[in-house]
Amino acid sequence: MRNFYADISLAAANGRKLLTILIDPDKFNEAEAAVYLEKIPKETTHIFVGGSTVAKLKTEKTVNSIKTQNNLPVILFPGDYSQITETADALLFLSLLSGRNPEYLIEQQVKSVDKLKNSKLEIIPTAYILIDGGKECAVQRVSGTKPISQCQVETIVNTALAGEFSGKKLIYLEAGSGADFPVSEEIISEVKKAVSIPLIVGGGIRSLEQKENAYKAGADMIVMGTQFEN
């Protein structure tokens, strides 16, 4: 059976950059899956599926429609335990470490156990760190937490290290969907120098230049999505 985390980790170790397209089920029309997937970049390596608020069963329908159209790994990026579906390949088991709301630090994780304990999904513990992207994002509203200011570089680095020290396998720096500006190159660089696990960066990355700058700063995987929704 394919180990998706091992693939990501090996790519990071070899300096091979990964590109993920994030699909929000609430903004996805399953009937137009083929048309949508034709628009994504050819260098896309993974697809994340999830959103802060998703209607019941919509995630499963979205995953099924995507998997009928391509062979890219589909990894769940859930905003709520109810979005977990067996039809995906893997799951980012997220802890929102930038906030202090126990619901997203541990409660959602506990609620998910009944769905996961007999699941074939590959579970990837992930430190999720919300960074200020210049506007209030859905994660901020739903979680009731505030992002960390981009001026607080040391706090961001220490939060990432706390994630690694607590056993997380991925660090995900998130500026939020539709952010006015992405996570800065300085933050990416400092976090990458500090941690020894793969680094994912998303939110506000729309242009080729922004993507390449994030890669050069140290991101192992870039997540893009908003520009492909319409």
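Second entry:
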Amino acid sequence: MERKEEIIQATFMLASKNRIDNVSMSQIATQLGIKKPSLYNHFRSKDEIVKAMYDYLRTQAKEKLKITDLDYGKLVKDKSLEEVLKLTVQNYYRMSAQNDMLSFYKIIYSTRTTNVVAAQIMCEETEKMILATKNLFYALQVHQKNICKRH
């Protein structure tokens, strides 16, 4: 395991117990058994660690479930509207409901009003969901999978 990953995991463990606002760079260094200045060789700040934690945990969740970026055109082509919607919702739920992701969302959600990075991550996740939904609905429209049937 590389040092950045160790730092992310140590920060995640501390934040899960104490909330992210109550975790310091000194505590992270102590948890790892290193000196605080050594952390700065890998990350400029705790905020940078938190951002890296989000990317790392999200990537790990997708890899664990073998979820790749979807080609919505291929996805909707040979499936019914109901099958497409169920599949996309199930994939997002499976990824988000993994223990580490769920714990991370709790950490971020609980501090989103007081921590700028937490708020940014919440916004980023929301933007990803909106973009994915737009892409899905566009593919449904292109492949004439009507959401509302007209009489």
